[in-house]
């Protein structure tokens, strides 16, 4: 992707998501990806989670008025070329995001594309979205999505469809388009029996299958966030949705190859691989990668 010359403002994105105190998922995953991809990222924090590598111990949602105000403040002044939603926690926050997105021209068919990552739970199964907020997700957010990027658990919660094979994956994608998304990316990464990570992207007319090799790592915390962030980055660079998803898949696959252990639980996907050589250069060090992937 062409980047701006040093000193010129880079492309600008907005992430509307929750904070992960462990630094691996949520806002922190987004910022790592946006920074390593050379973008300027604005932030609307929706929730503060208390979590580490073993799980989410607690969280609080941010006042919905403050969520909407963050979006309006940065969109009106700084200008946003693509936006992304992650953890939204509650119905009231979803409604505030939808209203602010409409006011600022963010979303399907508007000037600024919107990637909706419909985060419902952590990888440990800890809830990150109130169960009654699923209706608002379906009615208020998915219809505003340029592209919606659920994993298989989120697809089941949103559409009621259990994706077990290509046929059910296609039906699930149709169901997401029926809810109003422009594009649906149904990720197959949790189809554990499959040797690949087969994803289906469709807008109802085009069907694109993405198959990346499954990376055998126990450290994939934040992988969904990182994929959606990389898609958002490519959209900000003017890529069309299929090309942006292709870019995002390659980015997260590489991040999974460089994932590292942390704490007693799951370590994070690692977008820092992209800047490792320049960091080593800065510290005058060189990492031995002889037994790395
Ligand atoms: O990976 C989904 C996710 C998104 N946002 C926050 C999270 C998580 C997973 O734990 O904590 C804040």
From TrEMBL:
Pfam families: Phos_pyr_kin (PF08543). Its EC number is 2.7.1.49, 2.7.4.7. Pathway: Cofactor biosynthesis; thiamine diphosphate biosynthesis; 4-amino-2-methyl-5-diphosphomethylpyrimidine from 5-amino-1-(5-phospho-D-ribosyl)imidazole: step 3/3. It catalyses: 4-amino-2-methyl-5-(phosphooxymethyl)pyrimidine + ATP = 4-amino-2-methyl-5-(diphosphooxymethyl)pyrimidine + ADP; 4-amino-5-hydroxymethyl-2-methylpyrimidine + ATP = 4-amino-2-methyl-5-(phosphooxymethyl)pyrimidine + ADP + H(+). InterPro entries: HMP/HMP-P_kinase_dom, PM/HMP-P_kinase-1, Ribokinase-like. It comes from the Bacteria. Keywords: ATP-binding, Kinase, Nucleotide-binding, Thiamine biosynthesis, Transferase. One of its GO terms (cellular component) is cytosol. GO terms for biological process: thiamine biosynthetic process; thiamine diphosphate biosynthetic process. The keyword ATP-binding applies. GO terms for molecular function: ATP binding; hydroxymethylpyrimidine kinase activity; phosphomethylpyrimidine kinase activity. The keyword Kinase applies. Residues 20-270 form the Pyridoxamine kinase/Phosphomethylpyrimidine kinase domain. Catalyzes the phosphorylation of hydroxymethylpyrimidine phosphate (HMP-P) to HMP-PP, and of HMP to HMP-P. This is Bifunctional hydroxymethylpyrimidine kinase/phosphomethylpyrimidine kinase. It comes from Tsukamurella spumae.
């Amino acid at each position: 992707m062409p980047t701006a010359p040093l000193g010129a403002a880079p492309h600008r994105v907005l992430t509307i998501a929750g904070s992960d105190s462990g630094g691996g998922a949520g806002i922190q995953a987004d910022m790592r990806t946006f920074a390593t991809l050379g973008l300027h990222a604005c932030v609307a924090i929706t929730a503060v989670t208390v979590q580490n590598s073993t799980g989410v111990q607690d969280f609080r949602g941010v006042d919905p008025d403050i969520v909407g105000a963050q979006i309006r403040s940065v969109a009106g002044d700084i200008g946003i070329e693509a936006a992304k939603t992650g953890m939204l926690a509650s119905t009231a926050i979803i409604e505030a995001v939808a209203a602010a997105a409409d006011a600022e021209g963010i979303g399907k068919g508007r000037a600024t594309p919107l990637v909706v990552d419909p985060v419902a739970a952590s990888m440990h199964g800890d809830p990150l979205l109130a169960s009654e907020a699923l209706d608002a997700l379906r009615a208020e957010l998915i219809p505003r999505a340029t592209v919606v990027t659920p994993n298989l658990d989120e697809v089941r919660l949103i559409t009621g469809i259990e994706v077990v094979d290509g046929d059910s994956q296609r039906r699930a994608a149709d169901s997401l388009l029926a809810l109003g998304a422009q594009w649906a990316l149904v990720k197959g990464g949790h189809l554990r029996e499959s040797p690949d990570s087969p994803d289906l992207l469709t807008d109802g007319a085009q069907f694109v299958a993405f198959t990346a090799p499954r990376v055998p790592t126990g450290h994939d915390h934040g992988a969904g966030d990182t994929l959606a962030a990389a898609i958002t980055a490519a959209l900000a660079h003017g890529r069309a949705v299929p090309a942006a998803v292709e870019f995002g898949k390659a980015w997260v696959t590489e991040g999974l190859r460089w994932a590292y252990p942390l704490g007693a639980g799951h370590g994070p996907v690692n977008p820092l691989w992209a800047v490792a050589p320049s960091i080593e250069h800065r510290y005058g060090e060189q990492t031995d990668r002889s037994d790395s992937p």
